[in-house]
Amino acid sequence: MTPVATETLYGSSRERVLLALTELAAERGYRDTTVENIVERAGVGEDTFRTLFADKEACAVAAENAILSEVVASVSSSYLADRAELDSALLGVKSILELMARKPSYAYFGYVGARQMSPPSVFSIYETGHKVLVAMLERGWEYAELEVQPGRAALAALGGAEAIVRREVVGGRAERLPRLLPDLAYSATVSFLGQDEALRLTERGRDLLRDSPWG
What we know:
By secondary structure, this protein is mostly helical. The protein has ten helices and no strands.
């Protein structure tokens, strides 16, 4: 299991417990993480944990919901009425990558743990988030020049992007995720927007990174 650096504990007891679970799941795996481990890492009593959550699974569900909520909020803030749809989508992807770079244990739990190690109740939340991202990609189809859209183009594009993100996260390189923006912009759009538009979005992705810590 790839170790993940401990993040600074902050916020309420509930936030600290959720963060502790994601950190421990990244370090030792969900199955080998116990409630005792979580409360020790979070710096709270077990009675506080039991007040907040019925058990470890309920805590994991809450953690995945918290991750999804932050992702949706980040994406939503990128869509403005006076901003082009594709530029909004690109900024939405950038905001997700930056969120995961700031919180590497969330990245691990969201992209790896929820898919491979967690109970079905957590995986179902991951699937909900996956559908949200697919829908975001499909909103760009109206700009495509193709008369007939491949039925699973967005699903395939997102699957490829997630595979790249997971490899970085598992390799302990979550802090570098925003640097993937230009490559993800190209690979996620070239199949239905065409080479010229995909390259434009790739260059726009590079522009967005130039004045950032990841430029």
